[in-house]
C-alpha cells in the first residue's frame, strides 16, 4: 500500500504533498486482486502491480512512507481490511502498529545479500533492469531509514516469532510458518 501511495506521488509529481496524495487515494482506493501470477494491486481501476516494483518507486517508498499523515491514512485502511477477518498481512509495522493484537505474528528476516538476490531475479523475470550491487545498497539503505524513522519504525514485535529465511526457498518458509499456525 505504501508503494501504491508512492506511485501516486511520483506519477502526479506531488513530491511529499500528503494532502493531495490522500485525496487521490480516497478518490481511487487501493484494492487487491489475484491472478495466476499472484497478487494484483490497483489504485482505483488502474493495475499498478508492476509499476509499484519499478526502481523509482522502490527508491522513494521510504520517504513517502515516513510521512505521518500517509501512515495514519494507510494504517486506517489496513485495519479496515483486517476487520473482516481471515487475512494475512505483511508489512514493516503490521505486528507493532497496524495489528498489535494479531493472533499470530511472524517476523521474517533474511540477509541483505539474500534479499537483493531474490529481488534481482524477480526484477529480471519482469523485465526490470537492475544492478545487483546498487540493489544491495538500496535494500540496506531502506532498512536503515525504516528502522530509524520516528513514526512506526521497522522493528520486531515482542510477541512475534522470528524466522530467518536466508538460504530458504519459498516452500520451506511456508512450511515453517504453517507449523506455527497449527
Question: How would you characterize the overall build of this protein?
Answer:
One of its GO terms (molecular function) is kinase activity. It is an enzyme of class 2 (transferase). The protein is an alpha+beta fold and 182 residues long. 52% of the residues lie in helices and 12% in strands. The protein has helices at 2-11, 18-27, 55-65, 68-82, 94-98, 112-125, 132-148, 170-181, and strands at residues 30-35, 38-43, 46-47, 106-109, 161-164. The strands form two sheets. The chain has a three-stranded antiparallel sheet with strand order 1-2-3, with no helix packed on it. Helix 1 packs across helix 3 (55-65). The longest helix has 17 residues, at 132-148. The radius of gyration is 16 Å and the shape is globular. The relative contact order is 0.12. The mean pLDDT is 93.
Give the topology.
Elements: H1 2-11, H2 18-27, E1 30-35, E2 38-43, E3 46-47, H3 55-65, H4 68-82, H5 94-98, E4 106-109, H6 112-125, H7 132-148, E5 161-164, H8 170-181
Parallel strand pairs: 4-5
Antiparallel strand pairs: 1-2, 2-3
Helix pairs in contact: 1-3, 3-7, 6-7
What general form does the structure show?
Answer: globular
Question: What is the CA-based Rg, rounded?
Answer: 16 Å
Low-pLDDT residue intervals, each spanning 5 or more residues:
none
Total strand count, please? 5
Overall pLDDT: 93
**Strand share of the residues?**
5-15%
Distance N terminus to C terminus? Answer: 29 Å
Order of helices and strands: HHEEEHHHEHHEH
What structural class should be given to the helix and strand makeup?
alpha+beta
Can you summarize the main beta sheet? 3 strands, antiparallel
Strand order of the largest sheet: 1-2-3
The tally of helices reads: 8
Percentage of residues assigned to helices: 40-55%
Domain Cytidylate kinase: 1-179
Protein name: (d)CMP kinase
GO molecular function: kinase activity
EC number: 2.7.4.25
Amino acid at each position: 500500500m505504501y508503494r501504491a501511495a508512492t506511485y501516486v506521488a511520483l506519477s502526479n509529481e506531488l513530491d511529499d504533498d500528503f494532502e493531495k496524495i490522500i485525496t487521490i487515494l480516497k478518490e481511487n482506493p487501493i484494492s487487491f486482486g489475484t491472478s495466476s501470477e499472484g497478487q494484483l494491486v490497483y489504485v482505483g481501476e488502474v493495475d499498478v502491480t508492476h509499476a509499484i516494483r519499478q526502481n523509482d518507486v522502490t527508491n522513494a517508498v521510504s520517504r513517502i512512507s515516513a510521512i505521518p499523515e500517509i501512515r495514519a491514512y494507510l494504517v486506517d485502511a489496513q485495519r479496515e481490511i483486517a476487520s473482516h477477518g481471515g487475512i494475512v498481512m505483511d508489512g514493516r509495522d503490521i505486528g507493532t502498529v497496524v495489528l498489535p493484537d494479531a493472533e499470530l505474528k511472524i517476523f521474517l528476516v533474511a540477509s541483505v545479500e539474500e534479499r537483493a538476490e531474490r529481488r534481482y531475479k524477480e526484477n529480471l523475470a519482469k523485465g526490470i533492469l537492475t544492478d545487483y550491487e546498487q540493489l544491495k545498497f538500496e535494500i540496506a539503505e531502506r532498512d536503515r531509514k525504516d528502522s530509524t524513522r520516528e513514526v512506526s519504525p521497522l522493528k520486531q514485535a515482542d510477541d512475534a516469532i522470528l524466522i530467518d529465511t536466508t538460504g530458504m526457498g519459498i516452500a520451506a518458509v511456508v512450511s515453517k510458518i504453517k507449523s506455527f499456525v497449527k
